[in-house]
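Quick start: read one record
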Amino acid sequence: MAKKIAPVEIALLIYPGCQLAAVHGLTDLFHIAERLFQRSTQRSKSMEHPMLRVSHVQFDAGSSSPPWADSAPDFVIVPPSLDGLPIGDAFAPIVKWLSDCHTRGAVLASVCVGTFLLAQTGLLARRSATTHWSQAQLLAERFPAI
């Protein structure tokens, strides 16, 4: 009998100023990976393989109501920004939501300057982190514990 496994939820964060091309590129990448995985495992029907579910979580300017009020996705990916660094009080609801997701078991990741949002959670303290080369010095100055 096939074992049913819940889909793995990957949330791509859409925040004010984020690079939508990265969001859509990652969405396509995960859909292609899912398709290739399913194709490669069609020969073995003895177990049902996990599926990926990719969602876009959007925080608009001034938004404070997070999605997934009582749960969290398995993974959250913070894409890069096109409009400067995602730092400051305007991003506080997003930073809180990211921290809450981590508390509920989500793995957090970022691309490029999306690292600045993760850094604001405090979860990167005493860890290594990367960002765009042009912002590495600023990341080190603003978050010396990283």
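Helices lie at 20-40, 92-103, 115-120, 136-142.
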